[in-house]
Predict the 3D structure of the following.
Amino acid sequence: MQTIQLGIVGCGNISDAYLTGGARSQIVSVKSVTDLDMDRAKAKAAAYGKQAVSLDEMLSDPDISIIVNLTPPQAHADIGRRTIAAGKHFYSEKPFAVTLAEARELVAAAAAAGLRVGSAPDTFLGAAHQTVRGIIDEGRIGKVVAGAATFATPGMEMWHPNPFFFFEKGGGPVLDIGCYPITQLVNCLGAVESVVAHASKGREIRTITSEMYKGREIKVEVPTTVNGVLAFADGANVSVTVSWDVWKHTRHPIELYGTEGSILNPDPNFFGGTVLSSVRDGEWQEVSIEGRPFGAPTRQGGDGRSLADYRMAGVFDMACAIASGRPHRANGALALHVLEIMEALEVSAVDGRRVNIESRCARPEPVPLGLGEEVFFA
Ligand SMILES: NC(=O)c1ccc[n+]([C@@H]2O[C@H](COP(=O)([O-])OP(=O)(O)OC[C@H]3O[C@@H](n4cnc5c(N)ncnc54)[C@H](O)[C@@H]3O)[C@@H](O)[C@H]2O)c1
């Protein structure tokens, strides 16, 4: 397969993960980068041996077939529209768009133009999450009846260099971090039929303690804690807690309870981690994630944890899928379904009612066993 050339829009905090991931790939190659702040784009281009160009130049470059969008959520739909209008495939960081209406418009425009759209999170392609999916598909914990997912931290203003957008409309923990557990839950359990939720806001004003804007205050426009319940079409119901108001907790990222056993799914923000499973009331047993791609640690987190960070795997899969004509996994229908669930959690919390989910998506195909990106050739 010929290497597929990419352009990256947005050279902020997460762009290093994509540029590092791109450098490991034979499937794709990043040709150009751009940013509203061209000095930032030039610095990133120099660091990774790429070229910095304007967005218009990137969109008119015939060598580039996929645009990878790493701008803040509020810019996703606009970059998506322009990408599709330029006749290029579009892969966006999460959330795919900040409103369901915008996401629907992008998916429809891409379909009409015969183009692909894809979206992070692609972490569900990781070895740990695919192992959990395999255990469920093999029926080893029976039929999943219930579960609990928790993604709760003290917030973003203590580590992110530019944390304003997280607390503006279009930000908030549901859209920013809820997408990780919800995407993995849909990967494992299928589509969601309805949701209910309650929400709260820990503080009206947050003071930044990370370096660049230290001491600046942010007015919080969104709920910062949401507790919801997702009712899946296959009958399971799973509680989801997302919060930026929690200093410490002892909950596991995702727990699923089946008629024959239980399973503990590690942090869906990364690709690897320890999977534990038990049969009925037996002991927890570690389930090996060996033999699957995207599981070995690639770096250390700030807290010293070893992290498997393969962001870009979804782009590798989409590039191979375009070449072979098969569906890709981190696709628009999945992103749209997850976005509808996230929007519904907020609507439910505000209106105090159950919200039905209209969209449906197929569970993405499991990732084949193997060592790395070559699994996507299958
Ligand atoms: N930082 C993380 O750890 C992380 C992790 C996973 C996903 N994400 C997602 O990645 C995206 C970017 O996050 P980030 O943390 O890198 O943000 P950031 O603020 O650090 O960087 C965003 C960059 O996009 C640029 N930009 C803004 N609007 C633009 C436009 N219209 N055209 C071109 N460039 C534009 C900004 O100048 C900035 O350099 C978000 O959707 C976020 O949810 C971030």
Observations:
- The pocket of nicotinamide-adenine-dinucleotide is lined by residues 9-14, 35-37, 40, 70-73, 75, 93-94, 162, 176 (CB under 6 Å).
- Residues 332-351 form the longest helix (20 residues).
